[in-house]
Amino acid sequence: MTAIKPILLVEDNDDDEVLCLRALKTANLKNDIVIARDGAEAIDMLFGAGRPGPPGGLPFALILLDLGLPKISGLDVLKRIQEDDVIRRIPVVVMTSSNLDEDKITSYDLGANSFVRKPVAFGEFSEKVAHLGLYWLLINEMPD
Q1: Which residue has the higher pLDDT, 98 or 114?
Q2: Is residue 2 part of a domain?
Q3: Which domain, by its residues, includes 105?
Q4: Measured between alpha carbons, how far is 57 from 115 in angstroms, rounded to an integer?
Q5: Contact 66/16 with Cβ under 8 angstroms?
Q6: What is the count of structural domains for the chain?
């Protein structure tokens, strides 16, 4: 049986982090959630000493990535992910308050699997996150 891999949530906003965690818990997903609060921390968790799991394997089942991050932007994190032949296989969902076409286009050009605008209302935000988790973790099929 394959171990359940954690989700990497890359989010610098405390309120959005709490809402995301609550929505994923409500969806009854069994994955642990690992939180990076800036782009540099996310890079370290993906490639450096903070990386979970065995060397050479996919350390996360899913990456939920904000674009407006301190230290290293979400777009720069996406660029770094795409440079690695193994890590780029992890589905990346960009979750941001931006509704700019430029951010959408650039995110997809850099390998994002999905672009989701964060809604302002908690109920809508919670529903979107729960659906994302269910799709990417239970419906979508990934290699081991």
Answers
A1: 114
A2: no
A3: 7-139
A4: 25
A5: yes
A6: 1
Q: Has residue 1 been placed in a domain?
A: no
The CATH number given to whatever domain includes residue 70 is: 3.40.50.2300
Mean of the pLDDT values across residues 73-99?
Answer: 93
Is the alpha carbon torsion for 19, 46, 82, 138 positive or negative?
A: negative
Beta bridge pairs of residue 94: 65, 115
- pTM score: 0.88
Judge whether 144 lies within some domain.
no
Four-residue CA torsion sign, 144, 108, 135, 44: positive
Q: Which of 68, 66, 64 is nearest to 129 (CA)?
A: 64
Residues with Cβ within 8 Å of 98's Cβ and at least 6 positions away in sequence, in order, are 67, 68, 117
**Which residue type is seen at 16?**
D
Q: Would you say residue 70 has pLDDT above 90?
A: yes
